[in-house]
Structure formats: C-alpha cells, structure tokens
C-alpha cells in the first residue's frame, strides 16, 4: 500500500485528472501500460482505475476519472478529493498488458476507456513499435483527452471519432491492418461487443483481441449453498440474494474487494472442492472451465458446497 499526495486538474467532459506522487519526491513502483491501481477512497470504498500516464515516468501515477451519474459512490468520491490531500493506493496490477509479439497494436478507446490507451501509446512509441489509436466519444466537448492526443509525439497515429460528426467504421479499422495485429479495446459495453463481433467476423484469433471492462451488469442471486473457508475454519450459508463476500463478512471474515462486479480480480480465490458458478468478466473461458478459482464478489456455486482456500 502506498500513501500519495494529490494534484488535481479538471478536464472537459466531467473528467478529473488526478496526479499522485510521493510527498518526498521518491520514485514510485514501476508499472506497464494497461495496469491499474486501487484507489482507497474510504475504509469501505475501494475502486480500480487505469493508469493513464507514461510508464516511463517513475515519479507519478495519473488517473482520469469520469463523474458518473450512475455511480455507486466511487467516482463522486474521487471527484471530491482535494489538491494536497493524501490518498492510499495499491501497487499497480496489470490485467490488460500489451502483447510483445504483436506486429501491430490497434488501440480503441471509447469515452473514459481512452485512459489505458494513453499509457499503451506512450509505451509503444518509446519502444519503436507500430500502433494506431482510435478515440471514440459522443462529441468533441465531451472528449476529455483530445488536447493531450493532439500534442502527443505520436499524434500522427491517432484518429478521432465523434458520434455527432462521424462514427468509427469498425470493419474498415479492423481490416486495414497487417497480419498478427492485436486489438485492445476499453469503453462502453456496446463498443466492446461491437469490436469483438467485428474482429471475430474478420477472422481475428480470440487471443488477439483484448478487452478491459470498467463496469459490468452481473446477476449475483441464485440458489443457496454452503461455503467452507478452509484456512479460516469458517462455514457459512450463502443465501439466495447474498454474495459470498457478504456471507463471509457476517461470519467475521472480511475479504478484500474492489470493483464488486467481477472485473478487477482483487477477490480471486482458489477453489479446493466444489463447482463454481462463474458470473465474472475477469476469468477467461478456459480458466472458468478449470473450476479451480472463483471471484467471491459475484460468483456462486453450482454444487451444494464450495470449499475455498481462505
């Protein structure tokens, strides 16, 4: 855990740019493009945000955070942070890393989903690798990072798409690339689904299409079952409209959770016995099929009992 000081800048489109640095000016732990950190807004409010700064800059972490009208508290609390305050953050974790074997990296960011793409573009440019970046937004005034993109040293590799001017032509964008192109997309669910469907239709291998979700609709209810936390020696009954995390908390066993939507992986736990009912967007289909891990914030059990390594 790190405690960092805040510099704050308001951007257009209801986005705030937080620059987090050590109060003494010390270097921060390194990160690679696509990484995120958990922002500890209160003791019980922790949210993951993508790092959007240049990975080569070891003295600060930057986060671009949209004020979301549907927020459950995270973005509103982040916008309420004041310059000069201190905030606790986790070490960087990368679940959305660039593939070093890609001949070409095609970056597609929609709305606030542009944030990890900024770090990716900086890292690819520094490494002399081939890439292109497409930024989609409803309108130019709502596109928070247009100024940064237009003055970047790799600005000639950027294409802007605004819904009130001209939408992105995905078939053209996904076909006008060399062989062994890897696609990275982050943004609204509709955009990510469209990219995935079009990439599949264009013959992309599944492992060449990478996504990062900021939010996900997840159904956490279902048939009741028992969970045994083997290491802690606790057994709980998970009720129909209760999550495993909530059931364990009632028994005094607190689980570290962040997104609470099965996206970030912070509550990933090994399964010793039983069959998980996966509801997350974090594990791959292959990992889900293995059945030896579970996201406790949203997933359930198909079996009557689940024994976990906790």
TrEMBL record:
<dbReference type="InterPro" id="IPR017927">
    <property type="entry name" value="FAD-bd_FR_type"/>
</dbReference>
<dbReference type="GO" id="GO:0004497">
    <property type="term" value="F:monooxygenase activity"/>
</dbReference>
<dbReference type="InterPro" id="IPR039261">
    <property type="entry name" value="FNR_nucleotide-bd"/>
</dbReference>
<dbReference type="InterPro" id="IPR017938">
    <property type="entry name" value="Riboflavin_synthase-like_b-brl"/>
</dbReference>
<dbReference type="InterPro" id="IPR050415">
    <property type="entry name" value="MRET"/>
</dbReference>
<dbReference type="InterPro" id="IPR012675">
    <property type="entry name" value="Beta-grasp_dom_sf"/>
</dbReference>
<keyword id="KW-0288">FMN</keyword>
<keyword id="KW-0408">Iron</keyword>
<feature type="domain" description="FAD-binding FR-type">
    <location>
        <begin position="1"/>
        <end position="99"/>
    </location>
</feature>
<feature type="domain" description="2Fe-2S ferredoxin-type">
    <location>
        <begin position="216"/>
        <end position="310"/>
    </location>
</feature>
<dbReference type="Pfam" id="PF22290">
    <property type="entry name" value="DmmA-like_N"/>
</dbReference>
<keyword id="KW-0560">Oxidoreductase</keyword>
<keyword id="KW-0479">Metal-binding</keyword>
<dbReference type="Pfam" id="PF00111">
    <property type="entry name" value="Fer2"/>
</dbReference>
<keyword id="KW-0285">Flavoprotein</keyword>
<dbReference type="InterPro" id="IPR006058">
    <property type="entry name" value="2Fe2S_fd_BS"/>
</dbReference>
<protein>
    <submittedName>
        <fullName>Carnitine monooxygenase reductase subunit</fullName>
        <ecNumber>1.14.13.239</ecNumber>
    </submittedName>
</protein>
<keyword id="KW-0503">Monooxygenase</keyword>
<dbReference type="InterPro" id="IPR001041">
    <property type="entry name" value="2Fe-2S_ferredoxin-type"/>
</dbReference>
<keyword id="KW-0001">2Fe-2S</keyword>
<dbReference type="InterPro" id="IPR054582">
    <property type="entry name" value="DmmA-like_N"/>
</dbReference>
<dbReference type="InterPro" id="IPR036010">
    <property type="entry name" value="2Fe-2S_ferredoxin-like_sf"/>
</dbReference>
<keyword id="KW-0411">Iron-sulfur</keyword>
């Amino acid at each position: 855990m790190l405690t960092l000081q805040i510099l704050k800048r308001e951007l257009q489109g209801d986005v705030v740019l937080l620059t987090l640095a050590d109060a003494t000016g010390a270097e921060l732990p390194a990160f690679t493009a696509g990484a995120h950190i958990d922002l500890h807004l209160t003791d019980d409010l922790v949210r993951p945000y993508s790092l959007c700064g240049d990975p080569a800059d070891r003295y600060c972490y930057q986060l671009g955070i949209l004020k979301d009208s549907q927020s459950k508290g995270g973005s509103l609390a982040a916008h309420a942070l004041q310059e000069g305050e201190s905030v606790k953050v986790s070490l960087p974790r990368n679940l959305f890393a660039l593939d070093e074997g890609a001949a070409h990296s095609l970056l597609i960011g929609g709305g606030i989903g542009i944030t990890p793409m900024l770090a990716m573009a900086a890292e690819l440019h520094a490494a002399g690798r081939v890439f292109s970046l497409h930024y989609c937004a409803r309108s130019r005034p709502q596109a928070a990072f247009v100024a940064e993109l237009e003055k970047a040293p790799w600005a000639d590799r950027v294409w802007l798409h605004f819904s009130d001017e001209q939408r992105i032509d995905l078939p053209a964008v996904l076909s006008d690339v060399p062989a062994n192109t890897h696609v990275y997309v982050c943004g609204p669910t509709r955009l990510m689904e469209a990219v995935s469907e079009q990439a599949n239709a264009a013959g992309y291998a599944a492992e060449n299409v990478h996504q990062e979700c900021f939010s996900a609709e997840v159904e956490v209810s279902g048939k009741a079952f028992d969970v045994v936390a083997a290491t802690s020696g606790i057994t709980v009954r998970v009720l129909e409209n209760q999550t495993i995390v909530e059931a364990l908390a009632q028994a005094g066993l607190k689980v570290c959770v962040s997104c609470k939507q099965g996206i970030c992986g912070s509550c990933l736990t090994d399964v010793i016995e039983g069959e998980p009912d996966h509801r997350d967007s974090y594990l791959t289909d292959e990992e889900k099929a293995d059945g030896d891990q579970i996201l406790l914030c949203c997933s359930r059990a198909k079996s009557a009992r689940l024994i976990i390594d906790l």
